[in-house]
Amino acid sequence: MTKIAEAQVQLDELNKKLAVQKVAVTEKTAACEAMLETIAEGSKTATEKKEMAVAKGAEIEEQSKIIVVEKVS
User: Fold this and answer.
1) pLDDT per residue over 55-72, tens digit each?
2) CA atoms within 13 A on the CB side of 23
3) Lowest-pLDDT range of 31-35, 38-42, 62-66
């Protein structure tokens, strides 16, 4: 009988620890998801800026060609 009672006490302690750990995991999971969302938004912004820079570079290159042609004429 005492072994069963001891096992029950240990089980109760482990269940309490598990409950605390579940809360911690839930909080950390939410924090990670928020961080991933922030990273995704940053990546999207960076990609948009890169695309704008490439487009602006192509525009400048075209304008340079026009200027050279006008200078020669």
Assistant:
1) 999 999 999 999 988 888
2) 5
3) 62-66
- How high is the mean pLDDT of the chain? 95
Residue 54 three-state SS: helix
Domain ranges of the chain: 1-73
Residue at 32: amino acid letter: C
CA torsion, points 17, 21, 23, 29, in degrees to nearest 10? -170
Cα 57 to Cα 48: distance, rounded to the nearest angstrom: 14
Instruction: Confirm whether pTM is higher than 0.70.
Output: no
Q: Which structure tokens are listed for 1?
A: 């009988």
